[in-house]
């Protein structure tokens, strides 16, 4: 059973899964914005280009590596992006980032998961959008965070994974930010390290 986390809530991934987690996957799903049209003409969907990001930081808060639509794999191969979905078409997760926790470099203590709307629409206009964290072993959904209707911004710092010895803690952040890529949001991420 998945947990529905609210802003600020956190869970120990090891305790939640009942075993040591080695690989988790963040899935982001959304649909385009429904257009009503006039007298049946022009109805359809306006494409939305959300981008999932994983940013890896060390204990000093220095950015070590990034995975996003322009770099689909971390330098050490422990984090991989499924590829850029520019429309939100299709069912289920539109973009995923797989994180091999046991293979992350030892100096990585925090992974920030974020999303940006490259096409620029605010989250208030997006009707269905979510982020979820899945245990790859058994495909068990560990946590889900709803993103739709979050405000007049076009970026969101969704969650963090923090190393605590051999355990990892997942925290739903839900902090609004603005910008087309994660570069614009680095100052907003600092308080969550």
UniProtKB/TrEMBL annotation:
Domain of life, per lineage: Bacteria
Domain TerD: residue ranges: 1-178
A Pfam family: TerD
PANTHER family: CAMP-BINDING PROTEIN 1-RELATED
Protein name: TerD family protein
